[in-house]
Amino acid sequence: MKSALLYEGKAKKVYSVLGEEFQLILEYKDDATAFNGEKHKIFRGKGRLNNLISSHIFQYLHEKGIASHFIQALSDTEQLVYQTRIIPIEVVVRNIATGSLTKRLGITEGEVFQEPLVELYYKEDALNDPLMNDDHAKHITGISEGELEFIKEQARNINNHLQAMYDKIGVKLVDFKLEFGRLHDGSIVLSDEISPDTCRLWEEETDRKMDKDVFRNDIEDLVEIYDTIWKRMEENVHV
Amino acid sequence: MKSALLYEGKAKKVYSVLGEEFQLILEYKDDATAFNGEKHKIFRGKGRLNNLISSHIFQYLHEKGIASHFIQALSDTEQLVYQTRIIPIEVVVRNIATGSLTKRLGITEGEVFQEPLVELYYKEDALNDPLMNDDHAKHITGISEGELEFIKEQARNINNHLQAMYDKIGVKLVDFKLEFGRLHDGSIVLSDEISPDTCRLWEEETDRKMDKDVFRNDIEDLVEIYDTIWKRMEENVHV
Ligand SMILES: Nc1ncnc2c1ncn2[C@@H]1O[C@H](COP(=O)(O)OP(=O)(O)O)[C@@H](O)[C@H]1O
Ligand SMILES: Nc1ncnc2c1ncn2[C@@H]1O[C@H](COP(=O)(O)OP(=O)(O)O)[C@@H](O)[C@H]1O
Ligand SMILES: [Mg+2]
Ligand SMILES: [Mg+2]
C-alpha cells in the first residue's frame, strides 16, 4: 500500500510502500513533456498505456534473463518496483540515425547502423542532459570501469531483445533510453521505464512515428498511437 | 625543397616536397585564431616559436619512444614531416578542469583529476568540432576498436611524458589536443603540432596562463609568453 509521495518527476510519481523498506510504487502520469520540460500537455490515458507497456516489456525482458527493478503491476497506472539509487546516466541505444545525433555529428537522417551506437548522457536537467564519454561518466558518477562495461553490454542485449519484440508488432526500434540503478546490495539493475515515451518507434514500411515524437511534432493523437502499440503487443508478444 | 602549397590551415601551411612523395613541409604561421576562427590576429614571431617548441617536443617524445610524423626542423618556421592521412579526431587530454568541460558537465573549475580524462572531438569546423564517444568515432571515421584504444593509450603516455617535461620548466600541463594520422603503410602516428597553441599551460604557483588563452582572453602579449616557454624549454629540456 502507498505510503508517502517521495518524488514527483515529469512522467511518474514515486511512492514509498508501507512496511516494505526496499520497494517503491511508481504511478504513471498523463503528463507529456518535451524539450527539457518546455513543452507540456496532458493526454488522458497515457499513464495507463505506458504502465501497461512498460510492465509488459519488463516481464518480457525478465524471461530473456534481464533483471530489472520491476516486481508487478498493481493497477492500471501503478507498478511495484524495487527501490534503486538511480545512476545519473541516461543510456541511449541507436539503431537508426535521427534527432540530435544527425545535427551534432552530421550523420545522415535515416542511416541504419551496422552496429548500434551506445551513448551516455548525464541525467541532469539543469545542464540539459549533456553527452558524456566513459571517462566523464566514471568521473562524475563514480561508477567503475567494469560496471560501466556491464551497463553498456546490458543495453546492447536489451536492444537485441527489444528489436526482436518490436519486429513481432511491425515496428522498427529506432532508438531508446535506459536508466540503471543500484539495489540495496549495490548491484546494478535496469530501472525506470521502457515505453513509447522513452523509445523512438517507426512503423515498418510506412515509417510512421509511433512514439513521443508524435507529441514533440504535433503529428497525431498520442493516445491513439500508444493504444495501437499496446494492442499489438498484448496480441503478439506473450509473457 | 618546397614544391606546391597543398593546403593552408589556420596555423600552418602545408607544402609537398620536391622528389619526396611521402614527406611534407609544414610552415608555421603568425596567425592566431580562436572561437572556431571568429577571432583572428597576427603575432609576429609566433610561427617561429611554435615551430621551435613543437620540434623540440616531438624530439623529446621520440626519445621516449613515441613515434611521430616529425623528421627535422628546416628553418625558423618550417619543419619536415612524414605525410599522413589525418584521422579527423581531436584527442584531448585533461589533467585539470577548465573551459568547455566545466560548463558542459558542471565540473568545478580547477579540479585536478586523479586520472586524466581523454576526450574525442570530431575535427569538422562546419559542426564546431563536437564531442564524440568511441562508438561515434568508429562510425564516423571507420577507425577500428583496437586502433582507437592505441590512440587513447598513446595520448595517456604522451600526457605522462609532457607532464614530466613541463614540470622541469615550472609549468602545469592543464590540457592539450593531439591529432593522429596514417602513414603510407596505414600505421598510425602522432601528427600535427604540440605547442602553446594546442596546450593549456599554467605557471606553477601563480597559475598565470602561458598559452593561447592569453590571446583568447586578451590578457598579455602572446609572443612574450611563448618566448618564455621556449627559453625555459631550451635551457632545461635537453634533446
Ligand atoms: N526503481 C527505482 N527506484 C528509485 N527511483 C526510480 C526507480 N525507477 C525510476 N526512478 C526514478 O523515478 C523518478 C521519476 O520518474 P520520471 O517522472 O520519469 O522522472 P524525470 O522527470 O526525472 O524523468 C526519476 O528520477 C527516475 O529516475
Ligand atoms: N603529417 C601531416 N600530414 C598531413 N597533414 C597534416 C600533418 N600534420 C598536420 N596536418 C594537417 O595540416 C593542416 C594544417 O594545420 P593547421 O593550420 O593547424 O590546420 P587547421 O586549421 O585544420 O587547424 C591540418 O589539417 C592538420 O591536420
Ligand atoms: Mg523520466
Ligand atoms: Mg590546427
TrEMBL record, chains A, B:
Keywords: Ligase. It comes from the Bacteria. Its EC number is 6.3.2.6. This is Phosphoribosylaminoimidazolesuccinocarboxamide synthase. The lineage of its organism: Bacteria, Bacillati, Bacillota, Bacilli, Bacillales.
